[in-house]
Amino acid sequence: MNRHKNIFIKHSNFGLVKQCLQSLQRQNIRQLTKIYLTLPLSEISKQVNPALSSTEIEDLVLNMIHEGDIFASISHADGGMVIFRDSPERYDDQTTMETLDLKIKRSIIASEGVTQMDRIVSSSREFITKQMHGSSGMTGTSGGLDDEAFGENFDPRIMSV
């Protein structure tokens, strides 16, 4: 990431890259819960991101525990041993069903939004011109397209999902 930091900043993508890295670290920790019952924080750090300090990796694990991403505890008596547990959730109550239904609806809206944006962008005169000329000067959050390029049929709900 640091090797190409200037390019990411130039194209206004550095924040996105940092979010992807954080998401990857969290995903790697979730994977470890499927493999190990216990694991020292030092080993988690080695497998997730050796550049993180032991305090940073502990904070990340504690944050994931607090948010319910993983079910675990940290034993400092054992030198920072993380004990992974199975989810206590039984997934058989009304609240769980409502949450699942809401997440499915949001996923459908997001999918429709991506499809809509794909159609708008791929039929945009500006996009087609840039593709034909091989322009790589795409910047900003909309990939180099002006706000008007999305037209009046653009549904802004997709940006809030």
Description of the structure:
The protein is mainly alpha-helical and 161 residues long. It is 55% helix and 7% strand. It is built from 6 helices and 3 strands. The protein has a 3-stranded antiparallel sheet. β2 (72-75) and β3 (81-84) form a beta hairpin. The longest helix has 29 residues, at 94-122. The radius of gyration is 21 Å and the shape is flat. The protein starts with a helix and ends in a 28-residue tail after the last helix. The model is unreliable at 138-142 (pLDDT under 50).
Under the CATH scheme, the architecture of the largest domain is Orthogonal Bundle
Number of strands: 3
User: How many structural domains does the protein architecture include?
Assistant: 2
Shape: flat
Q: Which superfamily, in CATH terms, is the homologous superfamily of the largest domain? A: Winged helix-like DNA-binding domain superfamily/Winged helix DNA-binding domain
Estimate the strand proportion: 5-15%
In percent, how helical is the residue content? 40-55%
What's the helix count?
6
| Class by alpha and beta content | mainly alpha
What Rg do the Cα atoms give?
21 Å
Strand order of the largest sheet: 1-3-2
- Unreliable stretches: 138-142
